[in-house]
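STRUCTURE:
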């Protein structure tokens, strides 16, 4: 039946199991009685299609599959992935096949096989061997006969396989040999990294590994203590310490080590008690490197905490220890010795073997793959510390079962695994947040591709770097295909220790970051069975997390059909609310992916509906009631009528009242009208920042013209370009600036001229709010500078908005202007002060660059408004902090034009006597 469906449906739509029934049970309403349906046996085919293994080879493979997949039975036509296999379990399968048949099959060969329904075929076929002729995409199964299998092999392999089939002996290739006693035992590369980290900070708990479980029932504490001693005697890693001798990093295995079980009564918060244990440092030189804490919560309730340093354990090791602890505890209750299998090797044997391996081809792959890899530049809530501390926290979220099922089906339909799909999705999320394409994430493998390592306790886990070019124009399916290839290639070259890669590649050292990658993606597939202690109910608890190995780790675990997500993040960098938002964005991204996997990455959704509403409505709620628009110079005229004697502009020792400013601007306007200035005509204004330039700007506006600000500090050719580009017939300037425009052939009007012969009333220029007010040029950093045209009504609209938000009409500002004439921020300073009856204080150029002088100016003038770039504000904060002062009591502080770090903003607020409006 599965074969018939395979010809008509994509693989992900083919059921994992079939149940043959005489009839479908119905309920009283005539609908299917689902509760009465028998449970399917996943991993096995119905009797009508089930074919038992037919020879020793297939029997051996079926045994391996059953052990790895937990299936009740396996037939020769069963599908490896439909039976529960994935990319991680594949590595364990290939390890068992290598041990049983002496043939290496790479993960890529297994995934790309034309006959992935035959584990036998891939087991007996060396790289480059012949295929079976089965259909592409049918999945691994067991369908070749023994002799067909052997005959399909290259001659060099054929006889060796025949010899080994009789006893399934260990192949004689790169055998890990026991190390003779007497010499110094080296640390493995992974242990050496942990050791060096320890030497830098012996008190850091970053590499502590805490596991906790609640035990309910009658616990025999003495039997538990004896069980822990048995495990310490059995596993050398639990009685190993570390040191440096004659410059060599070594491990010392002790003949015996006491690992006491500390029993204590719970007197406070359980979480605080566990957090205290999680952060207690280990002494790697003296040991022991495993602590067992038993907290008595009630008469029949205990919490067991196993705390180990990562240098002697990993996730797989924990699974081994829990399984064996259950067996040993049960034996101790019966006063018997647990029947545990003999360990074929020691961890020290593995460490020596790792040092002796060349791995030149694999190292060459990684050198090419990671050349020039870019650091991940995620936006952070806090500035990155000079040296990372390793402090962290954990955020948990859940991907619903329906969405998980959709992601799995989508991945399988494209010959990929759930892990590959999750890596792709996380890389897209990181690329969108960081605004970069080169995304490298780490992942971990068990480091136990050899079956003789499976029962050992120790630090075997290895880190692989998965690098992708997240091109926003790619379709998701295309990127998934690239990630699939990257994952398979990485798994095929996984035996190079990450620490050795760092030594070979020598990335630029940055103590604030982890080398080569700063994010990780992990799908937990370690064979960890729950702790089973006889007579007790065990409930695993989530331990408190106070450390982070990298900036951010996305850890996924499938449980009861739900994908549980655990985000471990650096608290040096991120707030919890930021990580929570990223998790929500990740779920939205997954929903978008399954809804349209063919969409371009740039079109995939990221924000939640609430975030979309916040961005597009709440934060964008700038609509104002309609009003009759005004020209901006009319606002000045209104203030001049209300307060003619009040100070309008101050620059140094000079002050101009509103009446004086309006009169001088009117006379200048009359002169400009005489020269032909009218609405639509652009006039250049080139003057030093001060009173004169304000007169010049308003004079142009009153004449009906539009000004283009010409900063005299600009190069002459740039000034000439702006005058020519706007076709300005007139330039208002100062005598000292006449030589700044040597090629200008139009009329100059000098601001020093009294113009007493002209009327001091505003000319009837016929200017309307729809007319042009000014033209301001871009920097030209991306090419030729471009002129941006701003109309009077635009300025009136922003003036009304500022008034509504900051109450400028009710409480006019004394505004310090530090902006350059060349940017429209200078005119924004004018509007926020003069147009509402306030005072504009023009800061001299030399004072702008002197934080102490600027603070004195603010204090001396009583200024209460300022707009500046973050770097200037930070300089002011540093100045007042150094002098033990408070920040000036500004009513309005606007910070922009550059990125501003949250920590710097917080630093400002900590020294401000009053919180300004932003």
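SEQUENCE:
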């Amino acid at each position: 039946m599965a074969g018939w469906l395979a010809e008509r449906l994509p693989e992900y739509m083919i059921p994992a199991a079939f149940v043959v029934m005489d009839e479908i049970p119905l309920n009283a309403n005539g609908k299917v009685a689902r509760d009465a349906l028998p449970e399917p046996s996943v991993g096995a085919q119905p009797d009508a299609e089930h074919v038992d293994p037919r020879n020793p080879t297939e029997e051996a493979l079926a045994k391996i599959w059953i052990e790895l997949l937990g299936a009740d039975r396996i037939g020769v036509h069963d599908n490896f992935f439909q039976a529960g296999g994935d990319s991680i379990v594949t590595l364990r399968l290939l390890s068992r096949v290598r041990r049983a048949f002496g043939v290496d099959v790479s993960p890529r060969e297994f995934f790309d096989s034309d006959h992935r329904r035959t584990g036998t075929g891939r087991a007996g076929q060396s790289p480059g061997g012949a295929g079976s002729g089965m259909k592409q995409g049918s999945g691994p199964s067991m369908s070749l006969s023994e002799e067909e299998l052997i005959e399909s092999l290259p001659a060099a392999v054929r006889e060796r396989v025949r010899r080994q089939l009789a006893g399934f002996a260990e192949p004689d290739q790169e055998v890990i040999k026991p190390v003779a006693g007497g010499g110094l035992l080296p640390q493995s590369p992974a242990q050496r990294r942990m050791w060096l980290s320890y030497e830098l900070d012996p008190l850091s708990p970053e590499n502590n590994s805490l596991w906790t479980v609640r035990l309910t029932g009658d616990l025999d504490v003495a039997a538990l203590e004896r069980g822990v001693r048995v495990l310490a005697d059995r596993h050398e890693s639990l009685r190993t310490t570390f040191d440096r001798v004659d410059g060599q990093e070594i491990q010392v295995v002790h003949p015996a080590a006491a690992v006491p079980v500390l029993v204590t009564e719970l007197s406070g918060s359980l979480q605080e008690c566990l957090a205290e244990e999680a952060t207690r440092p280990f002494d790697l030189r003296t040991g022991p490197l495993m602590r067992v804490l038993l907290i008595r919560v009630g008469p029949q309730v205990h919490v067991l905490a196993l705390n180990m340093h990562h240098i002697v354990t990993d996730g797989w090791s924990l699974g081994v220890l829990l399984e064996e602890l259950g067996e040993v505890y049960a034996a101790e209750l019966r006063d018997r010795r647990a029947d545990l299998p003999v360990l074929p090797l020691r961890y020290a044997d593995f460490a020596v073997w790792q040092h002796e391996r060349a791995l030149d081809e694999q190292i060459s792959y990684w050198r090419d793959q990671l050349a020039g890899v870019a650091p991940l530049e995620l936006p952070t809530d806090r500035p990155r510390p000079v040296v990372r501390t390793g402090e962290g926290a954990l955020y948990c979220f859940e991907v619903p079962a329906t969405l998980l099922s959709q992601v799995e089906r989508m991945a399988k339909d494209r010959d990929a695994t759930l892990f590959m799909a999750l890596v792709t999705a996380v890389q897209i999320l990181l690329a969108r947040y960081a605004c970069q394409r080169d995304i490298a994430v780490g992942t971990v493998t068990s480091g136990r591709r050899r079956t003789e390592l499976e029962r050992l306790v120790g630090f075997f886990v290895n880190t692989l770097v998965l690098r992708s070019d997240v091109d926003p124009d790619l379709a998701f399916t295309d990127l998934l295909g690239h990630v699939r290839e990257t994952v398979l290639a990485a798994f095929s070259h996984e035996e190079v220790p990450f620490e050795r890669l760092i030594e070979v590649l020598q990335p630029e050292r940055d103590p604030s970051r982890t080398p080569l990658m700063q994010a990780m993606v992990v799908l937990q597939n370690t064979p960890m069975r729950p702790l089973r202690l006889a007579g007790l109910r065990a409930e695993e608890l989530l331990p408190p997390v106070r450390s982070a190995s990298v900036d951010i780790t996305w850890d996924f675990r499938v449980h009861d059909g739900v994908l549980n997500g655990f985000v471990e993040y650096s608290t040096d960098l991120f707030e919890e609310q930021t990580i929570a938002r990223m998790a929500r964005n990740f779920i939205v991204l997954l929903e978008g992916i399954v809804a349209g996997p063919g969409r371009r990455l740039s079109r995939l959704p990221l924000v939640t509906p609430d975030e979309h509403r916040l961005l597009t409505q709440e934060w964008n709620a700038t609509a104002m009631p309609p009003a009759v628009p005004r020209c901006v110079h009319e606002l000045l005229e209104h203030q001049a009528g209300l307060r003619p004697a009040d100070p309008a502009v101050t620059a140094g020792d000079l002050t101009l009242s509103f009446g004086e400013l309006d009169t001088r601007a009117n006379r200048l306007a009359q002169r400009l009208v005489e020269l032909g200035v009218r609405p639509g005509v652009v006039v250049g204004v080139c003057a030093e920042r001060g009173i004169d330039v304000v007169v010049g700007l308003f004079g142009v506006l009153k004449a009906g013209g539009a000004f283009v600000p010409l900063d005299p500090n600009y190069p002459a050719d740039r000034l000439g370009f702006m005058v020519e580009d706007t076709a300005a017939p007139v330039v208002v300037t100062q005598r000292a600036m006449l030589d700044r425009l040597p090629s200008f052939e139009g009329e100059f009007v000098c601001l020093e001229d009294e113009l007493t012969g002209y009327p001091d009333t505003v000319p009837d220029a016929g200017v309307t709010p729809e007319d042009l007010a000014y033209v301001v040029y871009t920097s030209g950093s991306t090419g030729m500078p471009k002129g941006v045209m701003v109309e009077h009504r635009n300025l009136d609209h922003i003036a009304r908005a500022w008034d509504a938000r900051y109450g400028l009409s009710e409480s006019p500002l004394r505004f310090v202007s530090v902006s350059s004439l060349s940017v429209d921020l200078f005119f924004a300073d004018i509007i926020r002060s003069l147009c509402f009856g306030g005072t504009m204080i023009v800061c001299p150029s030399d004072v702008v660059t002197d934080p102490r002088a600027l603070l004195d100016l603010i204090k001396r003038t009583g200024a209460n408004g300022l707009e500046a770039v973050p770097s200037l504000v930070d300089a002011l904060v540093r100045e007042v902090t150094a002098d033990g002062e408070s920040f000036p009591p500004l009513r309005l502080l606007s910070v922009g034009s550059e990125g501003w770090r949250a920590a710097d903003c917080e630093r400002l607020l900590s020294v401000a006597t009053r919180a300004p409006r932003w």
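REMARK: Residues 42-46, 114-146, 152-158, 165-173 have pLDDT under 50 and may be disordered.
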